[in-house]
Write a structure and sequence with these properties.
Number of strands: 22
Number of helices: 18
Helix content: 25-40%
Shape: globular
Radius of gyration: 30 Å
Distance between the termini: 54 Å
Structural class: alpha+beta
Strand content: 15-25%
């Protein structure tokens, strides 16, 4: 054994013990005739002390140690004279008797400490060094703990962990597939799974009534802080269940994860909100309900007063920002430019300030009397000192813009505490969404989602307005403004599945080519079934109080989908290209 103890283990109760430790040199410093070394492993830091009056070779070795040298030391546990309350081992130190240098290190390109001096790109290039830092070690330790909680809970609920294939058939409906050429089948390609959706449904047909896996999935889409080209899902499916059974089962799983991993109790039962209420009140299907600032429609209050922008709008909505009436004209101008950015897409911003002296000041004063503006304030339950922000346009688009603005104001006012948790279920989504551009319906979730039973009469109608009324038997788990997971009760009858393909404009030939295996499977007695998938990377990040998922993935990609550490993706040589029957169209 290279060590008898870890660097985070020893305490004052171990005083007098002879121990052997191994790890990396965090730092070394010489004070008077003594050399002090901080020795680090993933469990913590222990201070070593080498007396200048000790054996000359020992002193020489100690003084030669550089940052990130890998060493093994043996010595006696002593009580520290100058204790360090900031670390768990801060009451002890090791009086070193022997030092064995296991490996030397060149000077690292950045400091490997709690707060590093390395930029994001540099740390990504040397990810194996960044992973030595305590924040990332804590992040991956949390990921591990959560994975164990998931497996323990689901095993206790009778779920079986079953693996599904990574090389599957491409079904380009939604995000782009990553494709893999087949050497043994020239000109043909596998796809990497965006999710195991069809396979988990086939497992239900096969009689495995409770399935799960913590599985890698792949989507070729533009990246951001909470997206990676390869990501991990907690993928689950159950047979002979209705929506209530699924929600209760996975609400229990999340409750156990919060309790055992964070020591946090979440409400029992969790609140539920319809998709329509979420959009009307929060402008988002993943609302952050840690703070108020709800959206209010004020169309009837502000139209027919001569302000053409409002008079011609389908919808006028507003939010009341508590205590923000002190915003200056410069700040309001900056906010107006902010909402005009492509990410928000508004054409402008109207404000109403409820000043502390009781007056009302607005950017549309000449069109509205103080009494009219006071009625708007009353409708929003705004009070003195508040700032009302107003947008207008098509209903859903404007609500979405107000939702983005609401989140921005929540950030600016410090209302989104990452250590406060407000989970809820969003239910009753529309089954279908109409594309004006393509003049066709798309599935809001995926083409295997069942309509709510009471809406089947509209599902089989040929009228567009009836199909738009159909709600999906679907649900999302939302936490702090982030969708952590979603799922649905699935279609399990071949006739209903064929009807769904018909509504989506997928021909029988195309449906047979893409999904023939599952359509045929449904003909052999498919049970009623449903499930959901959680984004495991997002779960880990939010449990850790972060918005970005990268620190919770050992080896993530950057915003261009590149792994700068191993320089991937990269070209392959001509021999491989020829074997795969590929020709490059990229000009050198």
């Amino acid at each position: 054994m290279y060590r008898t103890n870890t660097c985070g283990e020893l305490r004052l109760a171990d005083k007098g013990k002879k121990v052997t430790l191994a790890g990396w040199v965090q730092k070394s410093r010489k004070l008077g005739g003594m050399t002090f070394v901080d020795l680090r492993d993933r469990y913590g830091i222990t201070q070593l002390v080498i007396d200048g009056a000790a054996d000359a070779k020992l002193v020489e070795t100690a003084e030669s140690l550089g940052r990130e040298f890998v060493i093994q030391v043996t010595g006696e546990v002593l009580e520290r004279q100058s204790k360090n309350p900031k670390i768990p081992t801060g009451e002890i130190e090791i009086k070193v008797e022997t030092i064995n240098i296991l490996n030397k290190s060149v000077t690292p390109p950045f400091t490997i400490e709690e707060n590093s001096d390395g930029g994001e790109d540099l740390r990504a290039k040397y990810r194996y060094l960044d992973l030595r830092r305590p924040p990332l070690q804590r992040a991956l330790a949390l990921r591990h703990r959560l994975a164990q909680e998931i497996r323990t809970y689901l095993d206790g609920q009778g779920f079986m962990e079953i693996e599904t294939p990574y090389l599957i058939k491409s079904t380009p409906e939604g995000a782009r597939d990553f494709v893999v050429p087949s050497r043994m089948n020239p000109g043909q390609f596998y796809a990497l799974p965006q999710s195991p959706q069809t396979f988990k449904q086939l497992l239900m047909v096969a009689g495995y009534d409770r399935y799960f896996q913590i599985v890698r999935c792949f989507r070729d889409e533009d990246l951001r802080a909470d997206r990676q080209p390869e990501f991990t899902q907690i993928d689950c499916e159950m047979s002979f269940v209705e929506q209530e059974d699924v929600l209760n089962t996975f609400e229990g799983m999340m409750r156990q994860m919060f309790k055992n991993a964070l020591g946090v109790d979440i409400p029992n039962p969790l609140p539920r909100m319809s998709w329509y209420d979420a959009m009307d009140n929060y402008g988002s299907d993943k609302p952050d309900v840690r703070f108020g600032m709800k959206i209010h429609e004020i169309t009837a209050l502000v139209q027919n007063s001569g302000f053409s922008v409002f008079d011609s709008a389908e919808y006028v909505g507003a939010i009341a920002v508590e205590g923000a009436a002190e915003y200056t004209r410069k700040q309001l101008d900056e906010l107006t430019e902010w909402v005009k950015r492509p990410q928000v897409g508004a054409k402008g911003l109207v404000y109403i300030k409820l000043n502390s002296d009781g007056t009302i000041k607005s950017s549309i004063d000449k069109f509205y009397t103080p009494e009219q503006l006071a009625k708007v304030a009353e409708a929003l339950e705004a009070k003195t000192g508040d700032l009302i922000l107003v947008l207008c346009g098509p209903k859903r688009k404007t609500q979405t813009q107000l939702g983005v603005l609401r989140i921005e104001m929540g950030n600016r006012l410090g209302l989104r505490d990452p250590h406060v948790f407000a989970p809820l279920w969003i239910v009753d989504f529309p089954l279908l969404e109409w594309s004006e551009e393509d003049s066709r319906f798309y599935a809001m979730h995926h083409p295997f989602t069942a309509p709510k039973p009471e809406h089947e009469k509209w599902f089989y109608s040929d009228k567009k307005e009836d199909l738009e009324r159909v709600c999906a038997n679907a649900y999302d788990f939302v936490l702090n403004g982030t969708e952590l997971g979603g799922g649905s009760i699935r279609i399990h009858e071949a006739a209903m599945q064929e009807r769904m393909f018909e509504v989506l404009g997928i021909s029988k030939e195309d449906a047979e080519y893409k999904f023939g295996f599952i359509i045929n499977a449904f003909k052999f007695g498919a049970p009623p079934h449903g499930g959901l998938a959680f984004g495991f990377d997002r779960v880990c990040a939010l449990f850790g109080g972060q918005e970005t998922i990268r620190d919770y993935i050992a080896f993530p990609k950057n915003n261009q989908g590149r792994d700068v550490m191993i320089d991937s993706p990269s070209k392959i040589d001509q021999v491989q290209m020829d074997e795969l029957c590929l020709a490059s169209t990229v000009k050198e």
